[in-house]
Structures are given as C-alpha cells and as structure tokens.
C-alpha cells in the first residue's frame, strides 16, 4: 500500500505506510506549478488523477511503479493533462465501468470527461442526455479554450529541480 498526498507547491508525494517518502512527482506542464486540490485513482490503481487550483486535471500511469517500486526502470509517467474548469477543482473521481472522469469545481459546475483522451462529454444539468459512447467529437466547454495534451515523451518525467536566476542590472536598458 502507498499513500499519495497533493501539495500546495504542485507536487505529489508517494509515501510508504511506514512514512518513508518513496517518490516525488511534479506535473509536466508549460504552466508554473500551482497548488493541487484533489486526488483520486481508478479502481485498479493503475491511474492517478490530480486536480489543481487553476482547473487543470493531470493523469499519471502508476501501474508499473506499484508492481515493483524498487526497480528504477518502472517510472511513473504523466500521460494526459487538460484544462477542465476555469476555477479550482474541488473533487474528481474515475468511473471505471463507463471510463469517465467526473470533475467538480468551485464555480459550481460538474463535468464529464473521457478518461483515455480527456475529451469533454458534457455536464450535469445539461438539457440533452450525455452520450458517453461518442468519444471522437472534440468539443470544449464554453469557458475553456485549450484542448487536452497527450504527453508521449518517455523522457519527460519531471523531478523537482532547483534553478537559480541571478538578477543582473543592464544599464543600457
């Protein structure tokens, strides 16, 4: 058994039951790290999902790491990232039977997403019935303008790095 915790610095920490830090994950993103506000897994614990304060959802494949966490070749790989809400994600869960991710935001909206590709399926309270089988149409909610990003690079596993940016005065500018 492993415990996952989400933090304000944007990292997810994986802990052993004894309290030993096993892994530190930093989401792969073109955006700066933002506080994570929700975590969940699918029923088989192969996928770890996180929601952020800015409305993003991130998905990691954790199956190979959980099978043998001592093997350094078994990395945790971020597979998918998308903007689900324009405000903070307060809860999310993975519905395994229909392969749907349900997200809830502080703005009061509850939305449905396809778990494999992050495609938008609808929202709770919409006038039409949600068609969970039509996963090929790429539409977005009215307040979101970016499509899901599928992260394919194997080498893009992000570890927290310390960077230094010294300030320099340029008198000509």
TrEMBL record:
<dbReference type="Pfam" id="PF23754">
    <property type="entry name" value="Beta-prop_IP5PC_F"/>
</dbReference>
<dbReference type="InterPro" id="IPR056454">
    <property type="entry name" value="Beta-prop_IP5PC_F"/>
</dbReference>
<dbReference type="InterPro" id="IPR051242">
    <property type="entry name" value="WD-EF-hand_domain"/>
</dbReference>
<dbReference type="InterPro" id="IPR036322">
    <property type="entry name" value="WD40_repeat_dom_sf"/>
</dbReference>
<keyword id="KW-0853">WD repeat</keyword>
<keyword id="KW-0677">Repeat</keyword>
<feature type="repeat" description="WD">
    <location>
        <begin position="82"/>
        <end position="113"/>
    </location>
</feature>
<dbReference type="InterPro" id="IPR001680">
    <property type="entry name" value="WD40_rpt"/>
</dbReference>
<feature type="domain" description="IP5PC-F beta-propeller">
    <location>
        <begin position="34"/>
        <end position="114"/>
    </location>
</feature>
<dbReference type="InterPro" id="IPR015943">
    <property type="entry name" value="WD40/YVTN_repeat-like_dom_sf"/>
</dbReference>
<protein>
    <submittedName>
        <fullName>WDR64 protein</fullName>
    </submittedName>
</protein>
